[in-house]
Amino acid sequence: MKLTLLDWSIILVYLAGCLAAGLWMRRFVRGVQDFAVAGREMDVNLGIASLAATELGLVTIMYTAQLGYEKGFAGAAIGVIMWLVMWFVGRTGFVIGPLRASGVMTIPELFERRFSPRVRWLAGLFVVLGGLLNMGIFLRLGGEFLVHAIGLPPGALEWTMTALLGLVLLYTALGGMLSVLVTDYLQFLVMGVGIVVTSVLVLVQVGWTPLTAGLEAAWGAGQLKGHPYNPVHESSFGWGYLLWQFVFQLAAVTTWQTQISRVLSARNADTAQAMYRRTAFYFVGRFLLPGLWGAAACVWFAAQGGLPEGLTSLTAMPHFLGVVLPAGLIGLVVAAMLAAEMSTDSGYMLTWATVIYNDLVAPCLKRPISPPAQLRLTRALVVAIAVFLLFYGLWYELPGNAWDYLAVTGNIYLASVFTLLVAGLYWPRANATGAVAALVLGAVGPIAFLVLGQRLAIAPEVAGASSFTLAALGMVAGSFLSPARPLRQ
Amino acid sequence: MTTVLVAVWGLLLAASLAWYGFLVFHVGWKAGREIRDLTATLGAADRPPPERR
Q1: Which CATH architecture is the domain A5-397 placed in?
Q2: Band of the pLDDT at A130, cuts 50, 70, 90?
Q3: A70 close to A226: Cβ distance less than 8 angstroms
Q4: What is the rounded CA–CA span in Å between residue B45 and residue A72?
Q5: I want to staple A442 with a disulfide (CB 3.0 to 4.6 A). Which of A196, A282, A471, B47 is the partner?
Q6: What is the rounded CA–CA span in Å between residue A201 and residue A193?
Q7: Min distance A352 CA to chain B CA atoms (Å)
Q8: DSSP of A15-45, one letter per residue?
């Protein structure tokens, strides 16, 4: 599909607006706390917009559409689980309530207070390792969308994504969380409109009855990998995988640093909990709406005789949108998808840079550096992460589907840090020995999947569930086998 | 069984579309006002240093 003048105008106005808003916020940054957690002045609705925009990236749209293409609507069961878990955490304040009340800037900072400086540093290392590996495929997947949706030549993928990342880097490095919040807000609006309009157009193009009948036919003919509607069916996720997802999502919404950074930027714990409750249902659409596009692509290509050569379950959806969306509207969709990519990239780069500075670099400094130097250092770390993203994103090949890769890399720290958080906040007997054992043991399963996943058939739920079990065992055994110490405050 | 599941997914799909549409306007309006308040607070010359919050 070729972009018209109107399409280009929409995209350029959107990009210019984001850049201007992001740069404008730079004037309010007076210190690292303004830069990292927006001076803790964020209110509920801005938190909802920022959380929703950050957690719905172009990479999310790609992998949820892939789930829709391979598993039909049943692929969105993970979104339903996430909805329930988010609402539960928002209702009870489980973990996020005491975490916000503690006044820390990052999760590892809490571990120093509760356990020891060594635990903080080690946890920071795992958080950064898991987070950066997880983020490594964002640019590649985002670029794949643009290549297939608007027909970019394959060679242009790297340059387009480099330019986009450069733009995001500019306002994130200068304005930090304040710029991220305001640009997230704009991106939330553009993305919301784009997703709703695209979903309605897909439904109009394919039709609800032909879509549901087509999915059943595709499943019957073996073109769909799993039952299109029943997630517990043996051909779909199955009970084991879904149960793992309950635990995984509970750990993700209470531990994932990009989500927690919004909790820590909130005015208080009540604001953070309200933000979670009101964002909870958003996560159903996060899986279901792009899943609809993927499922529709499956039915549409099945009617055409199957996927053309060169397309996969990952790239089928953008190719399908590029064909069925009317000219003149693709600009809005591309702007929405760029919004999704940019909001996620900015939030993630800032979050991991903050953890590296706060938990890995700062504790090693012999004497404190001046506030301006702290800011310069954090900004330099944002730039370094962007450089890493460019290179890692270009050469790593996914061992399985995108969702499994993201779940498993996230698990490198989710299982252990979740165990440390829950034990640290709710189990007085937990101590530093147990914390170190949990951190190390929790990372074994996911790293084995990443290293050996291409040679051995390790199911992602096995790698994931084993890491949660090992982390919990490490915490309990380590805490009981070493002397109890008074709680650090 | 399949008919029920199709209806459930159809319902969730319609609810998601409605919720996204609602959030864009509702949160869009309110978050816009919060950004105004946020910048006013942060821009105040007499605000305490960040370390005290």
Answers
A1: Up-down Bundle (1.20)
A2: confident
A3: yes
A4: 55
A5: A471
A6: 12
A7: 21
A8: HHHHHHHHHHGGGG--SHHHHHHGGG-B-HH
Instruction: Write down the pLDDT at residue B39.
Output: 85
pLDDT digits (tens, 9 = 90+) for A30-64: 777 777 777 777 788 888 888 888 878 888 888 89
CB A19 within 8 A of CB A342: no
Phi, psi of A324 (to 5 degrees): -90, -25
Closest C-alpha among A281, A252, A243 to residue A96: A252
Whether the pLDDT of residue A92 is over 60: the answer is yes
A-contacting residues of B 13-32, CB under 8 Å? Answer: 13, 15-17, 19-21, 23-24, 27-28, 30-32
Q: Which residue from A232, A274, A365, A189 is spatially nearest to B32, judged by alpha carbons? A: A189
CA distance A9 to A333: 13
The pLDDT of residue B35 is above 50: yes
* Nearest residue of A to residue B5, measured between CA atoms: A229
The rounded percent of chain A whose pLDDT value lies above 90 is 30
A65 within 8 A of A291, measured Cβ to Cβ: yes
Average pLDDT of the segment spanning A374-403: 78
Tell me whether residues B31 and A49 touch, CB distance under 8 A: yes
What's the complex ipTM? 0.84
The token pair that represents A374 in the structure block? 């702290």
Residue of chain B minimizing CA distance to A213: B6
Cα–Cα distance between A385 and A346 in angstroms, integer?
A: 11
- pLDDT of residue A398 exceeding 70, the answer is no
Dihedral-angle region of residue A457 (phi above 0 means left; psi in -120 to 50 means alpha; beta otherwise) = beta
CA dist., res. A293 & res. A91, Å (int): 32
Which pair of structure tokens corresponds to residue A46? 């801005």
pLDDT band with cut points at 50, 70 and 90 for residue A65: very high
